[in-house]
Amino acid sequence: MNSTTPAIAFEGVEKNFGSLKVLKGISGEIYRGEVVAVIGSSGCGKSTLLRCFNRLEAINGGRLVVNDIDISRPNLNRNVLRQLRSQVGMVFQQFNLFPHLNVLDNLTLAQQKVLGKSKKESAQLAAQYLEKVGLSEKANVYPEQLSGGQKQRVAIARSLCMNPQIMLFDEPTSALDPELVGEVLRVMQQLAADGMTMIVVTHEMLFAREVANRVMFLHQGQIEEQGSPREVLVSPRSDRLRTFLSRLNPDLDHQ
């Protein structure tokens, strides 16, 4: 992990939806090669913060720099936005695969349309990443023929095909049956071991504890507490965090 170069830097970031203030002047840095788990109750601003990082949501105030690109401006040039999206991959809760395309085509479409790669080149890269997520044999099947865990692994492979420098995960296992969660987390664990910069909104405390370098606890649009997994999950300082952890998993070993 390069501790001197932020992959993402945000200062005083505000995000409103009408009169609802979701992010309230939030500030922080995420470093290259770091894995940050973002936790907190529903409605605390976790997913909104993540969506701001790749400009799916434009911020209403403050400054936000992602991979040396200042995306704070209200009207971003289309080429700048395309550059950002090619560098920042995102994996959603509901997979977002194209149902009318087979797995291979799901992985090659953006490579050809956005990166301008040839059909052959994009297919070779797709095969490489399907192997990485353990789904080489599924290249020609359609999403409806896959389990939830397989769909999410395809979604991860699709993002990796764009050669991102940062990966955002928005509760990637929350739509999965419990027995399928492990196969997705193992892929994410391997990405972390490979040095990928990752920001993961998650309720999987075991993943946060074992894989993340840092855990960030959000409460009502602000960072209530952050630190190493041991500091945040085992020895929380704030009453709000202790309450959150006890409600989420009464058996978690924190004191």
Automatic annotation (TrEMBL):
Gene3D superfamilies: P-loop containing nucleotide triphosphate hydrolases. GO terms for molecular function: ABC-type amino acid transporter activity; ATP binding; ATP hydrolysis activity. The keyword Nucleotide-binding applies. SUPFAM superfamilies: P-loop containing nucleoside triphosphate hydrolases (SSF52540). One of its GO terms (biological process) is organic phosphonate transport. Residues 8-245 form the ABC transporter domain. The keyword ATP-binding applies. SMART domains: AAA. Transmembrane segments: none annotated. It comes from the Bacteria. Keywords: ATP-binding, Nucleotide-binding, Phosphonate transport, Transport. It holds the Pfam family ABC_tran. Belongs to the ABC transporter superfamily. This is Glutamine ABC transporter ATP-binding protein. It comes from Chroococcidiopsis cubana SAG 39.79.
